Amino acid sequence: MERSKLARLWWELMQIPAEDFFARHPERMVVGSSPHGRTMSPGYVGRKYAAGGWLLVGNYPAGGTASYIARPNPTDERLYASFAGLANADNDEDRLSRFERMSATWIELQRAHQIYKTLFLPLFEAGGKIDDDVAFLNAFPFRCRDNKAPNTRMYAAAWRLAVSRQIEALQPGKVIALGIATGRAIERFYSGSADFVVLERSNGDRYLKESAQRMIAAIAQARGGAGSSHMRPSERRNDRPHQTKVRSETTPRVPARRADGNSDAQRQSSVVHLPVSEYRKLFERLGLKAARGHTLKHSTRKLPSLYFNYKKDEKVFFTGYKRDSHCFPAHLWDRLDPQQAKDNQPQLLTVRPKAGHAAAAFEDWLDRF
User: Fold this and answer.
1) Please, which residues bridge with residue 195 across strands?
2) What is the pLDDT of residue 51?
3) Left, alpha or beta for 293 (phi > 0: left; psi -120 to 50: alpha)?
4) What is the spatial distance between Cα 169 and Cα 2, in angstroms, rounded to a whole number?
5) Whether residue 232 is found in the same domain as residue 286
6) 369, 324 contact by CB (below 8 A)
7) Residues 199 and 56 placed together within one structural domain of the fold
């Protein structure tokens, strides 16, 4: 696949007037002094993407409110500057350079988004992918006024003008629609041979819905298991130092028995965990407020409910909600039996950082919010 041809196509699509995509509905266009509302969000292509790969499809870019357009954040400014850079390229060499820069910038910035942590990471792990292996498009590539979803005519215009041409050029083997609305939009028009999958999203992408967990588990099973990481060792060490695997808990995990008859969980219990005093020092360093029997608080971040507790022997444990189980990856956290009667409820789970991993576990937890 010649990336120079992809760069040329992306550039050509960005020359199409924004009005054409809104299909005689100019009132749906974002207005304001910023050019973002009229700038196409064309999608990215990972540097290792190849024909037959995965194409992720989102619905449409958020950020279409007047207040947001008037005061975009620095990250947004950087992303849209990369779009404008490609649109303004004036020769093939420049187009390819700006296309690669835009794709790399988009992937880098996307890693900070909640959907990346909640949905992309377990999806990549299941498929043995990294983000540079995939491509991404929006079913409608422009922001819409007040973030109101595009209508059927707008989706149809976007398909005719851009999306169908991009899919044809990418030749994906799997098209993954991110969300029910996206799935419906693509299903109206797509008739290609690629495997078509719809992943249901939760509100705000705060957790993996059960249907998405089942779909991701099926992808892992088709691949032959989900045991390998979505990141190669060199990339895990260097490219993404703050990212970790997210394990989708679809069925209870049975502790493995060793030759001595003890389970891994039992072995783990013999390892010394941090005492209460050390947890308090860790929380202070991370800016967390912790009181026994209360949820952890942070001055600048809105955190999900996670109760800090310990027994008379000072064995520490934390109680949260199963809907947030993706925030406690299995390589950093142990699942425990309920430690007190009131925690023995179907919607709750009890966890504790693995011995020697308390700092890494809570740093990863905070990075998600």
Assistant:
1) 174
2) 96
3) left
4) 10
5) no
6) no
7) yes
Alpha carbon distance 221, 216 (integer Å): 9
Residues 6+ apart with CB under 8 A from 332: 244, 353, 354, 357, 360, 361, 364
- Tell me the three state secondary structure of residue 323: helix
In tens, the pLDDT along 216-241 reads 999 999 887 543 333 332 333 333 33
What span, in angstroms and rounded, lies between the C-alpha atoms of 199 and 210?
Answer: 10
Residue 347 lies in a domain: yes
pLDDT mean over 45-65: 95
In whole angstroms, what is the distance from residue 364 CA to residue 265 CA?
22
In a domain, 155, yes or no: yes
Q: Estimate the crossing angle of helix 3-14 against helix 92-110, to 10 degrees.
A: 90
Nearest to 127 by CA among 214, 243, 257, 224: 224
pLDDT over 70 at 248, yes or no = no
| CA–CA dist 84, 10 (Å, integer) | 12
Q: What are the pLDDT digits (tens) for 127-151?
A: 999 999 999 999 999 999 999 999 9
What is the span of the domain harbouring residue 126? 3-239
Q: Under a CB-based contact definition with an 8 Å cutoff, are residues 299 and 287 in contact? A: yes
Longest Cα–Cα distance of the chain, Å, equals: 73
Residue 272's pLDDT is: 59
Query: Are 92 and 217 part of one and the same domain?
Result: yes
Neighbours of 320 (CB within 10 A): 22
Integer Cα distance of 369 and 360 in angstroms: 15
